[in-house]
Amino acid sequence: TPRYTVLYNGTSKQPAFMKLKLSDAFIHEDTSGDFEWTANMVNINHGMNDELLNNCRPLQEYMLLIEEIRKNRSDGMEVEQAVDKAVTYCISNNILSEFLTKHRAEVIDVCITEYDEQAFVNGIREEGREEGKALTLFSLVNSGNLKPDIAAKELGISIHEFEIAMKKAGMNQPVSK
Fold first, then answer.
1. What is the pLDDT of residues 56-99, one digit of tens each?
2. Which domain of life does this protein belong to (predicted)?
3. Does residue 129 lie in a domain region?
4. Which of 3, 45, 52, 126 is 20 to 30 A removed from 163 (C-alpha atoms)?
5. Pairing mode, strands 17-21 and 38-43
């Protein structure tokens, strides 16, 4: 029987092992069991499954590369510089050196793309939160429960900009008198 394993190296806290179910990702719960598919998730971050990493040198070295990129980012480097410096460090310290030397450009491109994707997702989430906040404030002003100047200040814009944004959101009642 085929088995599916997911190697997790993300930054959010996860257990060492976890069973993932496809049905958990469904918008509407399906209890029929017809659509169940599972994967075993193995957390390969430092301290989670060290025995596995100690027995699989390429995987261990891959995580050293990822940890070096994370360290560089936490030191304030831009993504491109952090990845490039981590790859150089790994080659110099015989960490995946043959692979990284041969495929340096591809590895850097993939790592940068992965970080850019996460930044994009985070940006979309933040944009959604800001939009939701603005719509809530528009509704409160529209219903007379909040003064326009307070709402505008909360959004960091002028009252005039607030009025324009409110009209664009489809709330055409005059804000200021």
1. 899 999 999 999 999 999 999 988 899 999 999 999 999 999 99
2. Bacteria
3. yes
4. 126
5. antiparallel
Angle at 60 between CA 103 and CA 24, to 5 degrees: 95
Range of the domain at 136: 115-177
Question: For the whole prediction, is pTM greater than 0.85?
Answer: no
Residue 110 lies inside a defined structural domain of this protein: no
Contacts of 134 (CB under 8 A, 6+ apart): 155, 165, 169
